[in-house]
Amino acid sequence: MIRHTLYLLLLLALASCQTDYTKLPTFTANKQLKAVIETPAGNTRTLVYDREKKEFVADLDAGQEREIGFLPYPGNMGFIPSTEINKNGRGLEVLVLAERRETGSEMEVIPVGLVQLEKNGELRHIVIAVPSRPSERRIDATNFEGLSKNYPGAKAILQIWFSNFNKSGNTKFVGWRDEKFAEKEIQRWMKL
């Protein structure tokens, strides 16, 4: 009987251990930038990580599940762990240009640029990245110059998507920045 009770307690303890994705290191042991995927490529419903619940939940807008009013996500949307851009604890956003990854996936990525958007008078930065592993890349670019020179259509698609994805229509595309700017933004928002 005691053995079964101990086994049950061990199972309960393990089940209650949840990863706090916001506290994962920003970089892996081999110095690769890490991204945590919230909303997989191809989704129209937005998912976000709830720090308090330590789980991924539907993003709500006026009490309703937020749904993209345009084409589905063109990449895997998530955040860079151990970064914090506001008092709500939201991490710096990242869009990983790769095949669909499930919610909660951790990826090693290389920033290739940054998109600047304006919403309600506030500037919003989204890092654009590709997987670090060449075998996982669908876009063979590891910097902004390579993305711009070899994939101008991808940049145009992302610009159109970010200009139209918000149903309320109050998001304005401001511009592109290079990977060096993206890296500075990551450093700027890292929690020390």
Report on the structure:
- This protein has 192 residues and is α+β, with helices and mostly antiparallel strands.
- The protein has a single domain, classed as Inorganic pyrophosphatase (Inorganic Pyrophosphatase, Alpha-Beta Complex), CATH 3.90.80.
- It is 24% helix and 30% strand.
- The chain is built from four helices and ten strands.
- The strands form three sheets. A five-stranded mixed beta barrel has the order 1-6-7-9-8.
- Strand 4 and strand 5 form a beta hairpin.
- The longest helix has 15 residues.
- The radius of gyration is 18 Å and the shape is globular.
- About 5% of the residues have low confidence.
Keywords:
Inorganic Pyrophosphatase, two-stranded antiparallel ribbon, 5-stranded mixed barrel, 30% strand, alpha+beta, 192 residues
Task: Describe the largest sheet.
Answer: 5 strands, mixed, barrel
* The CATH topology: Inorganic Pyrophosphatase
Beta strands, count: 10
| Domain tally | 1
Question: What is the H/E order?
Answer: HEEEEEEEEEHHEH
Instruction: Sum up the overall morphology in one term.
Output: globular
User: Mean pLDDT, nearest integer?
Assistant: 90
Beta fraction of the residues? 25-35%
Looking at CATH, the homologous superfamily is Inorganic pyrophosphatase
By helix and strand content, what is the structural category?
alpha+beta
Terminal CA distance reads 48 Å
- At the first level of CATH, the class is Alpha Beta
CATH architecture: Alpha-Beta Complex
The strand order across the widest sheet is: 1-6-7-9-8
Low-confidence stretches: 8-16
Structural Rg: 18 Å
Number of helical elements = 4
